[in-house]
Amino acid sequence: MLANSIHSEARLRFSWGEAEAKTKLIERSLGGLCHLSKGYWDGGMVMLQLVNPTAGMFAGDSLELSIELDARAQVAITSPSATRFHTMKDAESACLSQSITIGDKAFLEYWPEMVIPQRGSSTVQETVLQIHGGGSVLFFDAVAPGRVAHNEVNAYRSYLNSIDVYVGGALKARERLKLEPKRGSWGKLVPDWDACYLATLWVYSANSTSTEAEVSRLVSALEEELGGLCAFSDLGEGLGVFRLLAPDAIIFQKLSKGLRSIVYDSLAAHQINFRKI
Length: 277
Known about the structure:
seven-stranded mixed β-sheet, nickel cation binding, cytoplasm, nine-stranded mixed β-sheet, UreD, globular
């Protein structure tokens, strides 16, 4: 680890308070690269923001984030701004590790802003998602092609992103994404686009009210209306994944918002407003 780098461990645990009939934050251990906003209760869910006080991660930085929801806890977490991985020298990198556990009949929406890898940066992001009982989750993960306004499209060195999804203790999905622009593994995913924003939305629920055909039809209509590319895959037993590609940040944000609404409608759940935080 570099002499000036920061290693942080952050832990959040939530439980359902029967007497208060609301979710409570019962364990909080934060600092360094991760702070937490004051929670907002909207009558059905606790909403919070995870904040990086250093405005990004630098060479040698590492953050281990653990989020745990006990049975019936209802939580939504976002971030106020993009996660920036700043310029690094050759052989330097930064790492973000996330461990998320959702208990029986608990619900988590984890929707941070996109990752923006700057020129020369090398990033490793690892996520383990554990879902138990009748738990539900929306897990959003997005990466920009770099600082487009600074002419840094695909100027980063590497971006390695991995996720393992467990349901009831069994591994249901494992994905590995490695982007190295100089090696040609990224480039232009769509030939006539100058840039490409990429996002994945993992959804698990045993209570969806929509079929794969219905969701796919809505996704296709959204794509036709806004542009970009998006699709849905039903992985079975309540687990699904959405893919999104967009040529610019405006279309990306509109598609993301549209997909979020489609998911909440399919779950017949109340869609919270993050702007209230």
